[in-house]
Amino acid sequence: MDEQGVAMGGTSDDTVPEAAPREPILAPEPHENPGDGLRRDRLMAALALMAGLGLLLATPFALRAGSPFFLPLTASLVIAIALVPLLEWLERRGAPAPLAALICVFLFLVVANAALASIVVPAWQWMQRLPESIPRIQQNLEPLIRFYAHLEHFVNRTLTSFAAAPVSQPQMIAAAAPPTSLLDLFTTSAPSALIEMFFAILVIYFFLSGWTRLRRNAITSRASFGGAMATARVIQDVVDDTSAYLGTITLINVTLGLIVAAALWMLGMPTPLMWGGIVTLLNYIPYIGPVMAALLLALGGLMSFGDIGVALLPAAIMIVAHLIEANAVTPLIVGHRLTISPLLILVSLSFWGWVWGTPGALLAVPLLIIIQTVLNAAGKPDIAGFLFEHGTLVSDPSEHRAHRQKSRDLSG
C-alpha cells in the first residue's frame, strides 16, 4: 500500500528534476546586422584599391610633367645613397658629419666635372666638323651603296611611281637656328640647368650630413623590436646593394672606356679619351647604351678615315670589348648577389626612359635595385586577400568570427 502510494504520489527522494528553462532567442535589433562590418570592410577595400590604382596610373604622368623637380631630386638621392659608405668611412675616422658630407660632395663634383669636361668640349668640336665631313662619309659609304645597287633601283622605281601623283607643296615653317657655338648653347640652357644642379648638390649634402640622425630616427621610431630590426635591415640592404652596384659598374665601365680609348689611340683616331668617356657613360644604359656607342664610333670612324674597313674598325673594337665585358667580366665580378631579371631591366629601362629620357635610362637600374630591395625586405601586399576575404583594413578579425558564430546560432 505504501509502495503503491509512493508510486502514485511521487513523493520519494528519487524525483526527476525539472529541465532548466531555455534562454529566449533574442532577435537582432533592427539597426544591427551581423554582416554590416564585413560589408563595410569590403567597401573600404574596394575604395582603397581604386584609389591606389588611380594613384599608380597618375604617378608616371606626374613624374614626367614635374621632371624639373623630380629628376634632380631622384638623381641626387641615388648618388647620396651610393656615397653613404664613403661618408661612414670618414665618420669612423673622426670626421664630423657636416665635414664628411662636404668632402663627399666635393670629391663627387671633381670627378663628375672632369669626366664631363673631357667629353663635352671635344664632342662639340666633332659636331662642328660634321658638315664638312659629309663628303668623306659619302665616299666611305660608296662601296656599300654599290653593293646594294639593286635595292637602290627598286627604291628609285618606287619613288618614280609616287612622283607621278600630284604632290602637295610643303609649307615652310620658320625654325629657330641652333646655337652656333658652345657659349651660345651655355647661355641659352644654363640658367635652368644651373638651378637644377644647385638643387641636387644641396639635396646630396643635406642628406649625407643628416644621414646618421635620419637612420637612427627611422629605427627608433618603430613600436617593436622586430620592426626596428626590419627597418635597420632594409636601410642597410638598400645602401649596400646600391653602392655595390654603382661602385662595381663604375669600375667596370671606366676600365672598358680606357681599353677602348687605348685601342683608338693606337689606331690613330682623334680625341680617344672623349670616345672612351662616351663608352663609359653609355655603358650604364643596359642593352641600348652599347649599341648607341658603337653607332657613334662608326660615325666618328667614317669622319676620320678614308677607307671603309678602317673607318668601321672603332665600332668593331667597341662591340668586341663589350661582348667580353658583358659575358665574362661583369658576371664574374658582380656574381649572383646583384643578379636582376633581364625582363625587369627592360621594363625599368623603358619606363624611366619614357618618363625622363636619357637621364631616366641612366637611373633605371639603380632605381630598380632600390625598389626591389625594399619590396623583398618589406613584403608584398596580399591584394587577393585584401579584396575577397576580410582585407587588411580589418582591425580585429575576432569581431568577424563572433559575427559569423552569432549568425549561425540565430539560424540554428
List keywords for this structure.
single chain; 412 residues; mainly alpha; 0% strand; disordered N terminus
What would you say this structure looks like, in words?
The chain is mainly α and 412 residues long. It is built from 16 helices and no strands. α3 crosses α9 and α8 runs antiparallel to α9 (225-267).
Would you summarize the structure shown here?
With 412 residues, the chain is mainly alpha-helical. The chain has helices at residues 2-9, 36-65, 67-92, 97-129, 134-147, 149-163, 182-209, 211-220, 225-267, 272-282, 288-304, 308-311, 313-334, 342-378, 383-388, 397-411.
Taken from the alpha-carbon principal axes, the silhouette is globular
Measured by DSSP, the beta-strand proportion falls in under 5%
CA(first)-CA(last) distance: 49 Å
- Elements, N to C (H/E): HHHHHHHHHHHHHHHH
Helix content: over 70%
Number of helices: 16
**What is the typical, i.e. mean, pLDDT?**
76
Q: How is the biggest beta sheet arranged?
A: none
Structural class: mainly alpha
Number of strands: 0
Radius of gyration: 36 Å
Assembly classification: single chain
List the helices and strands and how they pair.
Blueprint lengths: L1 H8 L26 H30 L1 H26 L4 H33 L4 H14 L1 H15 L18 H28 L1 H10 L4 H43 L4 H11 L5 H17 L3 H4 L1 H22 L7 H37 L4 H6 L8 H15 L1
Helix pairs in contact: 2-3, 2-14, 3-4, 3-7, 3-9, 3-14, 4-7, 4-10, 5-11, 8-9, 9-10, 9-13, 9-14, 10-11, 11-13
